[in-house]
Amino acid sequence: MKIAVLTGAGVSAESGIKTFRDSDGLWEGHDVMEVASPEGFTRNPEVVLDFYNQRRKQLLSVQPNAAHYALVALEDKHDVTIITQNVDDLHERAGSTNVIHLHGELLKVRSTGDENLVLEWKEDLNLGDVCENNHQLRPHIVWFGEMVPMIEVAAEVVEQADAILIIGTSMQVYPAAGLVQYAKPDAQIFFVDPKPSISESKKITVFAEKASIGVPKVVELLN
Ligand code: APR
């Protein structure tokens, strides 16, 4: 079967990475518009660069969890595409081979002068770190108000999927949250979240539990 897996911050929660809307709307104590918007970066680049330096350091200190590994096992029998809103590399580190990052990647940076100039970057990024053409480098993250370049590709994946897994997302941020509208009428949908934001129906099966418990159950059903 073709399986599309839409993941959000909840799939990485048990690896120790905070979600966005569980912690009273602040992201590690910051208003998201201060640290995840072009205006915030223009206004206070050091605050933004330091914020992502902390996020990058934290990411390098955590590990994938049982949910990430269960999704890898799904690849044994099915054609799986992970469409994640997360900027961490935990799906890749667990072994998933086909991952689309809708909101960018924390371990990459890009030139403010040429958005196609993207570099792998695991250490701190500071003011004065510039690309080969002397433009300041910035996190390769899709900030609020910026385009989501991979959304069309992701929509096509969902359109062709026989089953869709939605794991650990509050479904509040578009266009990602709108992807489920592209599902085929006969596609089976599985939703894993301790506080599910959609209800059970004939085509939607809800597992109101943590990803590390719920995702292996779904994989067991599908494999
Ligand atoms: N297992 C599964 N789901 C969990 C767990 C867990 N252990 N813990 C929390 N959740 C669920 C929450 O109930 C919530 O529904 O994960 C979801 C996290 O929602 P958000 O914090 O809104 O994260 P997400 O949906 O990924 O946010 C989307 O918003 O801030 C932007 O760009 C950012 O990609 C992010 C986007």
Quaternary structure type? single chain
Can you tell me the CATH class of the largest domain?
Alpha Beta
Within the largest sheet, what's the order of strands? 5-4-1-9-10-11
Corresponding CATH superfamily of the largest domain: TPP-binding domain
Q: Tell me the fraction of residues in β-strands, as a range.
A: 15-25%
CATH topology of the largest domain: Rossmann fold
Q: How many strand segments?
A: 11
Number of helices: 8
The arrangement of helices and strands along the chain is: EHEEHHHHEHEEEEHEEEH
Rg, Cα atoms, Å:
18 Å
| N/C terminus separation | 10 Å
Please tell me the CATH architecture of the largest domain by its name: 3-Layer(aba) Sandwich
The largest sheet, given as strand count, sense and whether it forms a barrel, is:
6 strands, parallel
Tell me about this structure.
The chain has eight helices and eleven strands. The protein is of the alpha/beta class. The chain is globular. The strands form three sheets. Strands 5-4-1-9-10-11 form a six-stranded parallel beta sheet, sandwiched between helices.
Summarize the structure.
This protein is α/β, with parallel strands linked by helices.
How would the blueprint of this fold be written?
Layout (H helix, E strand, L loop, with lengths): L1 E6 L2 H4 L12 E2 L2 E2 H4 L2 H6 L1 H15 L6 H9 L4 E6 L5 H5 L4 E3 L2 E8 L6 E3 L16 E5 L9 H10 L2 E5 L20 E5 L11 E4 L3 H12 L1
Parallel strand pairs: 1-4, 1-9, 4-5, 9-10, 10-11
Antiparallel strand pairs: 2-3, 6-7, 6-8
Helix pairs in contact: 5-8
Short descriptors:
2 domains; 3-stranded antiparallel sheet; Rossmann fold; alpha/beta; 223 residues; 8 helices; single chain; 29% helix; SIR2/SIRT2 'Small Domain'; 11 strands; 6-stranded parallel sheet; binds adenosine-5-diphosphoribose
